[in-house]
Amino acid sequence: MSLYRSGKREEAFNALVDSYKERLYWHIRRLTCSHEDADDLLQETFVKIWTSLDSFREASSLYTWVYRIATNEALNFLRRQKVRSALTFAAPLDETLCRKIDSDPYFNGNELQRRLHKAIQKLPPKQRTVFLLRYFDELSYDDISRITGTSVGSLKASYHHAYVKIKEEMQKYF
Q1: Which residue, among 135, 131, 116, has the nearest Cα to 174 in the 3D structure?
Q2: Can you give the residue ranges of every domain in the chain?
Q3: Torsional sign, CA 34, 39, 42, 43
Q4: Could you read off the pLDDT of 117-172 as tens digits, one per residue?
Q5: From 3.30.70.100, 1.10.1740.10, 3.40.50.170, 2.40.50.140, which CATH number describes the 2-171 domain?
Q6: Global pTM value
Q7: Are 166 and 120 in contact (CB under 8 A)?
Q8: Distance between CA atoms of 112 and 159, rounded to whole angstroms?
Q9: 66: closest CA among 1, 124, 5, 158?
């Protein structure tokens, strides 16, 4: 931010992109289950960051602010997909996301990982987001609270419920 504030905006933005692009890509990809969608949403996220950087007040860390934008972009995308699938009488969104996991040519995990990702996609959006941020991104509840605007206690409950549902889903296969 000091580079940005000193007038070296392009240099600052390039440094920000280099610092966050991979982590944000994987965060968005886990939410959307699609390389193409994650790529598009990552670009939209960075456009939104670029256009909003002037308004960043530094009340929170840059890290949580950037994650919040990426999370909101992905969740808004999923909401639009859910509405679109309802209006066209297509398969429910969780089924569509599970099919994306099966058909993803870039997925390089084993069958256990595939089943884990499918179980995660069956979670309600809030539980899925909390689980992904905590389990895969290894964020603290305090950071997740800043990203989602949800209390730590509520996040802990959401994570616990997500964990129980995933555990039950995974036990079906053993």
Answers
A1: 116
A2: 2-171
A3: negative
A4: 888 988 988 899 999 999 999 999 999 999 999 999 999 999 999 999 999 988 98
A5: 1.10.1740.10
A6: 0.71
A7: yes
A8: 20
A9: 1
